[in-house]
Write a structure and sequence with these properties.
The structure is a single chain. The strands form three sheets. The protein has a two-stranded antiparallel ribbon with strand order 1-2. 31% of the residues lie in helices and 16% in strands. It is globular, with a radius of gyration of 14 Å. A hairpin with a 2-residue loop joins β5 and β6. It is of the alpha+beta class.
Length: 137
């Protein structure tokens, strides 16, 4: 298992994500803090530092996710993993309505909940970015 996050690996993760957070779709170009490679399965849970286990995440999504791999689905109470950007298509799990990221699946529900994708400030920011034609799906 490679533990080093090289400049080349960081660049691959960013380019693959087209410079957007793979959870909330926030463009890097307008973020106050540089987006970061996120271990989808955290290292403390034996996740590898490899392209298959890395997703580009904005600072807010990455901090809220932390070392978690999932949560209890607010609808069913079942322990459910987060959306995995390497194996799931964003549009199969979420849709955007009035600046809110709405979940379609259990994985999406726990991702929205734990990453706080619809906090008031994030929705307001998203609406402003949509109006400016900077945020899209």
């Amino acid at each position: 298992m490679s533990e080093e996050l090289t400049r080349e690996l960081r660049q691959l993760v960013s380019e693959r994500a087209h410079g957007r957070c793979e959870y909330c779709l926030l463009p890097q170009q307008i973020a106050l803090h540089k987006h970061e490679p996120d271990h989808i399965i955290p290292r403390q849970h034996d996740g590898e530092t490899s392209p298959e286990n890395l997703a580009l995440a904005c600072m807010r999504c990455n901090r809220h996710k932390g070392p978690n791999v999932g949560s209890f689905d607010p609808e069913t109470g079942v322990l459910t993993p987060f959306l995995n950007p390497r194996t799931h298509q964003w549009t199969d799990h979420f849709y955007l309505e009035n600046g809110r990221i709405l979940p379609l699946t259990p994985e999406a529900r726990v991702t929205v909940k734990i990453l706080r994708l619809n906090d008031e400030t994030r929705v307001a920011e998203r609406l402003a970015l949509i109006k400016a034609k900077i945020y899209n799906i």
